[in-house]
Write a structure and sequence with these properties.
The structure is a homodimer. Chain A is mainly α. Chain A has two domains: 161 residues, Cytochrome Bc1 Complex, Chain D, domain 2, CATH 1.10.760.10; 133 residues, Cytochrome Bc1 Complex, Chain D, domain 2 (Orthogonal Bundle), CATH 1.10.760. Chain A contains 14 helices and two strands; from the N terminus they run ααααααααααβααβαα. A two-stranded antiparallel sheet of chain A has the order 1-2. In chain A, helix 1 packs parallel to helix 9, helix 2 runs antiparallel to helix 6 and helix 9 packs across helix 14. Chain A is globular, with a radius of gyration of 21 Å. Chains A, B: Its cofactor is heme. Chains A, B: It holds the Pfam family CCP_MauG.
Amino acid sequence: MFKLRLLLTALALSSSLSAMALEPLPTTAPAPADNPTTPEKVELGKLLYHDPRLSSSGTVACASCHNTSLGGEDNRPNSVGINGQTGGRSAPTVWNAAFNAVQFWDGRAASLEEQAAGPVTNPIEMGMKSWDDVVARLKTIKGYQVAFAKAFGDDNAITKANATKAIAAYERTLITPNSAYDKFVAGNKAALTVQQQHGLEKIQALGCTGCHSGPAFNGPGGFQKFPVFSNGYFEAQYHISKDLGRAEVTKNDNDKHLWKVPTLRNVAITAPYFHNGSVKTLDAAVKLMAKLQLNQDLSDADTADIVAFLNALTGEFPHQTLPSLPATPGSTFN
Amino acid sequence: MFKLRLLLTALALSSSLSAMALEPLPTTAPAPADNPTTPEKVELGKLLYHDPRLSSSGTVACASCHNTSLGGEDNRPNSVGINGQTGGRSAPTVWNAAFNAVQFWDGRAASLEEQAAGPVTNPIEMGMKSWDDVVARLKTIKGYQVAFAKAFGDDNAITKANATKAIAAYERTLITPNSAYDKFVAGNKAALTVQQQHGLEKIQALGCTGCHSGPAFNGPGGFQKFPVFSNGYFEAQYHISKDLGRAEVTKNDNDKHLWKVPTLRNVAITAPYFHNGSVKTLDAAVKLMAKLQLNQDLSDADTADIVAFLNALTGEFPHQTLPSLPATPGSTFN
């Protein structure tokens, strides 16, 4: 009898959900016209992405903070760059970043190519004085001369533009398909538990999917305000409003507290949460979002259902070989 | 005629070399009786080795300084631990470390297991307060509970002893066979160029292989004095004698300036050189060793031959999959 009720609930849920646009994560990411994805670029980009020699000290790679082995980020509220320096924002996951309409929390890069250029010369991240210095260093490494020539078909191919194109091409392969949710959407209704199906229904009913929409649950693009509903207590507890978000870039008051909508894909394994990593657990993050964005006080039971569903967004991480970085001639670092 | 002379030279060299004990690198490493190598331990050890959550800040893994992608070390004179701190010694390569008779530059660990325990709680390296803290943290990560149980067949298997055993088991798989030298030793006389064969002959004639002996060119075990011949100029230039080596551990004057003989395997790709990483190029390192250990002033031509040979000791790095680290529940780091 109990089983039957469960089944009926499941059927009712599937039926109500089937009317909505539930989309699986695409297994390939679109590339810009001037940077079609090729295996050679992906292979080169993978090397560059994991190479700490792209930092002034030789200790910080893209992968140090956006760790492909660890949910695509570093599990820290903020990241640690050269000389132990920390910034004010939490590293977003690189997995499925190809599906973001803009990059960085404040959306200051329009593409993965543009994003890749930033941290390398940021003085508290990778600390290179200029991309000319990066290019000069890469040119001393024979293996990179070969890999750039292969990827870009030119003996003089080591340039900033090509390096960032290669990194972006690699990042476009960092996709985590086949989550329980994707299997459910593809027709396997048993892929989500009844609790997860409840959670899915609730994030739609509450309005979470108003912004966290689409296959990557990161909206159709553009920015959203956070918080929508002021709350002195929570804003103080989590220092949420200290950072002006997009307005820090545009210096436009209308952009205050606007943020890129982050993907919910793999959210269960990418704590801590929010632009400043101030919230340590997914339960707390879900409750806070409901309160600050939708003015809802979520019950523990509703929170548990939603968290159960969010766990169904953890995808399959494709097998990659550990990169074998081309050798340095002598030593670059002091 | 020129070709004939080259051929005759090559034949003469092979003939003179064939009388000596040239040994290929073993493709497996011996394991201690209480830690037989198993696939489950190797897999777990690979995770732990690449996991920055074994450091207090979540930013430094074993692989940060002993980078499996980058010749097994970090190409720096000294390594960078938590909070940007640096030590006084250069990270030795992890590749083929299984063939060292002792571990650390000063040989203070008798085994890979013992070595693995050190950096994790070193305050300037990975900075954990104690292994109890490491164990407590690992126990919060469900994937580690599973992986330790698989490797050690016990539900309560997360211990310091098992963690270091697993790391050591993984490190025993980090072997780089099939260098040009190994192919030469196996009978393919064309695997070494004539210049490389000259280099091989010279390191034997000069006496380099007195200490750098055996298949890994790291001696039969024990320690050697460095420098053997005092030289105020070079000792000052490279700060070579400031660090007392083994005596820093034993506090015994007889151990002053005794060091573990490092492997020459992959030496061409693991600059900078010596315990303090003070020498940036292989040419300079070869000349300095000849001067300080053998009281020989090497000509540029002899140096070039030896460097050519040392390049033949770069092996094949086996393909490994990029580790997929088990997810953190919530966030551990502040």
